[in-house]
Amino acid sequence: MVENTQKDPVAIVVKKDSIKPQLPIQKPAAVKPDTSKPATSKPDSTKPDSAKQDNGPLLIHTVASNETMYSIATRYKLTMDQLKAKNNLTDNSLTVGQKLWIRGQYPVTPPEPEHPLDTLNSIKDPSLKYAASRYGLNQIDEKGTAVWISDTDLDPTKMLVLHRTAPIGTVMKITNPMSNRSTFAKVVGKFSENESTKDVIIVMTKAVADALGALDKRFYCNLTYGGQENEQ
After folding, report:
1. pLDDT per residue over 147-164, tens digit each?
2. Which member of 2, 34, 73, 134 lies 3.0 to 4.6 Å from 83 by CB, making a disulfide possible if both were Cys?
Protein backbone atom coordinates (compact mmCIF):
# COMPACT_ATOMS: atom_id res chain seq x y z
CA MET A 1 0.00 0.00 0.00
CA VAL A 2 1.53 3.21 -1.12
CA GLU A 3 1.43 5.96 1.50
CA ASN A 4 0.22 9.32 0.49
CA THR A 5 3.16 11.51 1.34
CA GLN A 6 1.41 14.74 0.29
CA LYS A 7 0.50 16.60 3.34
CA ASP A 8 -2.59 18.51 3.68
CA PRO A 9 -2.04 22.19 3.01
CA VAL A 10 -1.63 24.13 6.16
CA ALA A 11 -3.97 26.93 6.51
CA ILE A 12 -2.12 30.11 7.45
CA VAL A 13 -4.13 32.18 9.69
CA VAL A 14 -3.08 35.81 9.86
CA LYS A 15 -4.34 37.84 12.72
CA LYS A 16 -5.67 41.14 11.80
CA ASP A 17 -4.00 42.70 14.80
CA SER A 18 -0.54 41.57 13.67
CA ILE A 19 -0.51 43.82 10.61
CA LYS A 20 -0.07 47.41 11.53
CA PRO A 21 -1.16 50.02 9.03
CA GLN A 22 1.65 52.21 7.72
CA LEU A 23 1.17 55.76 8.92
CA PRO A 24 2.05 58.69 6.66
CA ILE A 25 5.38 60.31 7.42
CA GLN A 26 4.84 63.65 9.12
CA LYS A 27 7.19 66.49 8.36
CA PRO A 28 8.61 68.29 11.38
CA ALA A 29 6.74 71.44 12.16
CA ALA A 30 8.56 74.64 11.19
CA VAL A 31 9.97 76.50 14.13
CA LYS A 32 8.57 80.03 14.33
CA PRO A 33 11.05 82.75 15.22
CA ASP A 34 10.66 84.21 18.66
CA THR A 35 9.32 87.72 18.15
CA SER A 36 9.07 88.52 21.81
CA LYS A 37 11.21 91.44 22.94
CA PRO A 38 14.30 90.54 24.87
CA ALA A 39 14.14 91.33 28.50
CA THR A 40 15.56 94.76 29.15
CA SER A 41 18.23 94.89 31.72
CA LYS A 42 17.68 97.28 34.56
CA PRO A 43 20.12 100.16 34.73
CA ASP A 44 22.87 99.76 37.21
CA SER A 45 21.92 101.94 40.12
CA THR A 46 25.53 102.07 41.22
CA LYS A 47 26.55 104.11 38.16
CA PRO A 48 26.03 107.88 38.38
CA ASP A 49 23.34 109.34 36.15
CA SER A 50 24.63 112.59 34.69
CA ALA A 51 21.16 113.57 33.45
CA LYS A 52 19.77 113.47 36.97
CA GLN A 53 22.78 115.39 38.26
CA ASP A 54 21.92 118.35 36.00
CA ASN A 55 18.44 118.65 37.52
CA GLY A 56 17.62 120.29 40.77
CA PRO A 57 18.95 123.45 42.39
CA LEU A 58 22.32 124.87 41.48
CA LEU A 59 25.14 123.34 43.51
CA ILE A 60 28.66 124.78 43.46
CA HIS A 61 31.41 123.08 45.46
CA THR A 62 34.32 125.06 46.86
CA VAL A 63 37.50 123.02 46.95
CA ALA A 64 38.92 122.67 50.45
CA SER A 65 42.38 121.59 51.50
CA ASN A 66 43.23 117.89 51.11
CA GLU A 67 40.36 117.41 48.63
CA THR A 68 41.03 115.69 45.30
CA MET A 69 39.16 115.30 42.06
CA TYR A 70 38.37 111.71 43.01
CA SER A 71 37.06 112.51 46.49
CA ILE A 72 34.80 115.28 45.22
CA ALA A 73 33.46 113.19 42.34
CA THR A 74 32.76 110.28 44.68
CA ARG A 75 31.01 112.54 47.16
CA TYR A 76 28.51 113.72 44.55
CA LYS A 77 28.21 110.34 42.76
CA LEU A 78 29.98 111.52 39.63
CA THR A 79 32.83 110.09 37.64
CA MET A 80 36.02 112.08 37.42
CA ASP A 81 35.49 112.53 33.68
CA GLN A 82 31.99 113.94 34.26
CA LEU A 83 33.26 116.37 36.87
CA LYS A 84 36.07 117.57 34.60
CA ALA A 85 33.73 117.90 31.61
CA LYS A 86 31.24 120.00 33.60
CA ASN A 87 33.97 122.43 34.59
CA ASN A 88 36.04 122.39 31.37
CA LEU A 89 39.06 120.91 33.13
CA THR A 90 41.77 119.02 31.29
CA ASP A 91 43.56 117.46 34.27
CA ASN A 92 42.97 116.48 37.88
CA SER A 93 44.79 119.40 39.50
CA LEU A 94 42.74 121.58 41.86
CA THR A 95 43.45 124.62 43.99
CA VAL A 96 42.01 125.54 47.37
CA GLY A 97 39.05 127.86 46.94
CA GLN A 98 38.37 126.77 43.36
CA LYS A 99 34.67 126.63 42.42
CA LEU A 100 33.36 123.43 40.82
CA TRP A 101 29.93 123.15 39.19
CA ILE A 102 28.21 120.00 40.46
CA ARG A 103 24.61 120.18 39.23
CA GLY A 104 21.75 122.48 38.29
CA GLN A 105 21.47 125.10 35.59
CA TYR A 106 24.54 127.28 35.73
CA PRO A 107 23.57 130.95 35.26
CA VAL A 108 25.08 132.27 32.04
CA THR A 109 25.95 135.90 32.68
CA PRO A 110 28.69 137.60 30.69
CA PRO A 111 31.37 139.03 32.94
CA GLU A 112 31.20 142.76 33.30
CA PRO A 113 34.43 144.41 32.13
CA GLU A 114 36.20 146.42 34.79
CA HIS A 115 36.97 149.17 32.30
CA PRO A 116 34.39 149.38 29.49
CA LEU A 117 36.04 149.83 26.12
CA ASP A 118 35.24 152.80 23.94
CA THR A 119 33.00 152.00 21.00
CA LEU A 120 31.68 154.10 18.15
CA ASN A 121 28.44 154.67 20.06
CA SER A 122 30.23 155.65 23.25
CA ILE A 123 32.36 158.14 21.33
CA LYS A 124 29.27 159.67 19.75
CA ASP A 125 27.46 159.69 23.08
CA PRO A 126 30.04 159.27 25.84
CA SER A 127 27.55 158.86 28.66
CA LEU A 128 29.24 157.17 31.59
CA LYS A 129 28.20 153.62 32.32
CA TYR A 130 28.58 154.25 36.05
CA ALA A 131 28.02 157.29 38.19
CA ALA A 132 30.46 160.10 37.50
CA SER A 133 31.68 159.97 41.08
CA ARG A 134 33.09 156.48 40.46
CA TYR A 135 35.58 158.03 38.07
CA GLY A 136 36.42 160.90 40.37
CA LEU A 137 34.27 163.27 38.35
CA ASN A 138 31.47 165.68 39.09
CA GLN A 139 28.87 166.09 36.36
CA ILE A 140 28.13 169.73 35.77
CA ASP A 141 24.96 170.90 34.01
CA GLU A 142 24.50 174.46 32.80
CA LYS A 143 21.74 176.24 30.91
CA GLY A 144 22.00 179.59 29.21
CA THR A 145 22.68 181.55 26.07
CA ALA A 146 25.29 180.51 23.53
CA VAL A 147 26.80 182.53 20.72
CA TRP A 148 28.89 181.58 17.72
CA ILE A 149 31.51 183.99 16.44
CA SER A 150 34.05 184.21 13.66
CA ASP A 151 37.45 184.59 15.24
CA THR A 152 40.85 184.28 13.64
CA ASP A 153 42.05 182.26 16.64
CA LEU A 154 39.25 179.68 16.21
CA ASP A 155 39.06 177.46 13.14
CA PRO A 156 35.41 177.76 12.05
CA THR A 157 35.47 174.22 10.62
CA LYS A 158 36.41 172.56 13.94
CA MET A 159 34.27 171.71 16.96
CA LEU A 160 35.78 174.21 19.41
CA VAL A 161 34.29 176.30 22.23
CA LEU A 162 35.33 178.87 24.82
CA HIS A 163 34.04 178.69 28.39
CA ARG A 164 34.43 180.84 31.49
CA THR A 165 35.46 178.19 34.02
CA ALA A 166 35.81 174.76 32.36
CA PRO A 167 39.42 173.54 32.11
CA ILE A 168 41.05 173.59 28.70
CA GLY A 169 40.69 170.19 27.06
CA THR A 170 37.26 169.50 28.56
CA VAL A 171 34.82 167.86 26.14
CA MET A 172 31.32 169.25 26.54
CA LYS A 173 27.98 167.92 25.42
CA ILE A 174 25.93 170.77 24.01
CA THR A 175 22.20 170.44 23.32
CA ASN A 176 19.93 172.80 21.44
CA PRO A 177 16.43 172.22 22.91
CA MET A 178 14.81 174.06 20.00
CA SER A 179 16.10 171.59 17.40
CA ASN A 180 16.59 168.71 19.86
CA ARG A 181 20.09 168.20 18.46
CA SER A 182 23.25 167.56 20.45
CA THR A 183 26.95 167.59 19.67
CA PHE A 184 30.32 167.52 21.42
CA ALA A 185 32.99 170.18 21.37
CA LYS A 186 36.35 170.75 22.99
CA VAL A 187 37.16 173.67 25.28
CA VAL A 188 40.25 175.45 23.96
CA GLY A 189 40.20 178.55 26.14
CA LYS A 190 38.28 181.14 28.11
CA PHE A 191 36.47 184.17 26.81
CA SER A 192 36.25 187.67 28.14
CA GLU A 193 33.00 189.53 28.37
CA ASN A 194 32.33 192.18 25.75
CA GLU A 195 29.38 193.41 23.75
CA SER A 196 29.02 190.17 21.73
CA THR A 197 29.58 187.79 24.66
CA LYS A 198 27.47 189.62 27.22
CA ASP A 199 25.26 187.27 29.30
CA VAL A 200 26.39 184.13 27.46
CA ILE A 201 27.73 180.94 29.02
CA ILE A 202 29.63 179.61 26.00
CA VAL A 203 31.21 180.84 22.77
CA MET A 204 31.47 178.38 19.86
CA THR A 205 32.62 178.11 16.27
CA LYS A 206 30.20 178.08 13.36
CA ALA A 207 30.78 174.33 12.92
CA VAL A 208 29.35 173.68 16.39
CA ALA A 209 26.39 175.98 15.78
CA ASP A 210 25.64 174.26 12.46
CA ALA A 211 25.78 170.83 14.14
CA LEU A 212 23.21 172.07 16.67
CA GLY A 213 20.92 173.43 13.96
CA ALA A 214 21.12 176.96 15.32
CA LEU A 215 19.11 179.46 13.28
CA ASP A 216 20.33 182.59 15.07
CA LYS A 217 23.74 183.71 16.20
CA ARG A 218 22.55 183.69 19.80
CA PHE A 219 20.41 180.80 21.02
CA TYR A 220 19.51 178.92 24.19
CA CYS A 221 21.44 175.69 24.96
CA ASN A 222 22.19 173.08 27.66
CA LEU A 223 25.73 172.11 28.65
CA THR A 224 26.90 168.88 30.30
CA TYR A 225 30.53 168.17 31.20
CA GLY A 226 32.63 166.63 33.93
CA GLY A 227 34.96 168.23 36.43
CA GLN A 228 37.48 166.78 38.87
CA GLU A 229 36.27 166.38 42.45
CA ASN A 230 39.31 168.09 43.87
CA GLU A 231 39.00 171.00 41.49
CA GLN A 232 38.36 174.22 43.31
Report:
1. 988 877 778 888 999 998
2. 73
pTM here is 0.41
Distances (CA, A) of 45 to 41, 73, 76, 78, 85: 12, 16, 14, 13, 22
Pairing of strands 218-228, 171-176: antiparallel
Rounded to an integer, what distance in angstroms lies between the CA atom of residue 206 and that of residue 195?
Answer: 19
On the 0-12 / 13-18 / 19+ scale of CB atoms within 10 A, 84 is middle
Burial code (b: 16+ CB inside 10 Å, e: under 16) for 96-130 equals: eeeebebbeeeeeeeeeeeeeeeeeeeeeeeeeee
**Residue 103 near residue 53, CB atoms below 8 Å:** yes
Residues 82-107: tens digit of each pLDDT: 989 888 888 988 889 898 988 876 55
